[in-house]
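Project channel, design review

CF: Before we commit to the Hymenobacter nivis constructs, I'd like one complete example in the thread so the newer folks can see what an input/output pair looks like. Taking 3-phosphoshikimate 1-carboxyvinyltransferase.
RD: sounds good, go ahead.
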Amino acid sequence: MRGLAHLPASKSEANRALILHALAGGGQLSNLSDAHDTQLMQALLAAAPGTDQLSAEDAGTVMRFLTAYLAVTGWRGELTGTPRMQERPIGVLVGALRQAGADIAYEANDGYPPLRLGGFAPGTAVAGPTCLSVRGDISSQYISALLMVGPYLPGGLELTLTGAVGSRPYIAMTVTLMARFGALCRTNADATQLTVAAGRYQAADYTVESDWSAASYWYALVALGPVGSEIMLPGLRRHSLQGDQAIAGIMAHFGVETTYLPAEQGVQLRQGPRLGGPEILRLDFTDCPDLAQTVAVVATALSLPVDMTGLESLRIKETDRIAALQTELAKFGGDLQEVEPGVFRAVSTGFRVAGQTVATYHDHRMAMAFAPLAMRGPLAVAAPQVVRKSYPQFWSELAGAGFMAGEAG
Ligand SMILES: O=C(O)C1=C[C@@H](OP(=O)(O)O)[C@@H](O)[C@H](O)C1
Ligand SMILES: C=C(OP(=O)(O)O)C(=O)O
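CF: and here is what came back for 3-phosphoshikimate 1-carboxyvinyltransferase:
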């Protein structure tokens, strides 16, 4: 395996920075990637003033962050997405924005895109902040979207989170980036209430970090590769804003050692001894749902059973990722069953890689999570171009590392 792989920049950081930059009206953003979700956010922000028809395509962050941004900036028009996006819920966010004074209607099904935005008319005689309350167990993207427009709501925003809250590191990332652009966001002790001061963002420069979610596929390659496999990943930081940095700790269980290089040069991955542990490892993906597919594939391929929890949000992502994993793992002799409510056990039933074709369900992570199985035998990936959503160079980087990228016929 080649010694170095290039990662894309984080689409989560980039799409927040783009919204904050648009509201601030200045500053220099560096290391924006050519990932489609990032390119799309840039293109739609630029196009919005001159059009009344926008499509967020299949990009969750674009759909949710733009809904809030367009609402408070008084944009009028239709915001839609792919057929799959029209199945991904947005009712919690729309409900909150309506309460804040946004005119938003559903064009087809209640609670789902496409949306018709008809302007913003917040109350005027407000004493204190705009108080909104949202549940936190469907998508943290609603919360990030509301926080980012918080300074522009009358009196600022007091946001109460109810119930279980998933993907918390993404909320923390939002708060940190808002601070970079000069907005003050305070959190109470149990992190159920977030208060954003009214004001205006200030122009700021920001360099987007490389993407830890994308790094997870290189961790998988090292875990499944021959003894001595190693790879360097430039651009990853020890002090990351990304919750998917959790992959470093998770993959230690599968024998991948992470070394942070000096001066934030990146990380070096090396296959080493596996951490000892219980017979069946238990891992919680509540805070890092995008890592679940990578880990399910590695665990089954290595015959190291894992009980996976916190997978609830996987059903409403680019595809139903639990169903997709179950179908595709079964082709190789892997199994993912719900052994008790909310606990999915990933196990091998005689794992073998021998020319199977992986279906990808319009989901970049299905393609990239299964690709490392090439370390164990030949396989084909259907519709490989799905990777463009977050990691357009994935196949060329794999080829550079010694793999022949081949498309399924
Ligand atoms: O805010 C973000 O950048 C994201 C939040 C997560 O979504 P949920 O909050 O819906 O879990 C994650 O799965 C997605 O890829 C990116
Ligand atoms: C869930 C994802 O993206 P989004 O929700 O932004 O479409 C993802 O990239 O895994």
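RD: helpful, thanks. The chain has two domains: 11-207, 212-396.
CF: Residues 12, 60-61, 139-141, 144, 166-167, 170, 289-290, 313 surround shikimate-3-phosphate (ligand 1) (CB under 6 Å).
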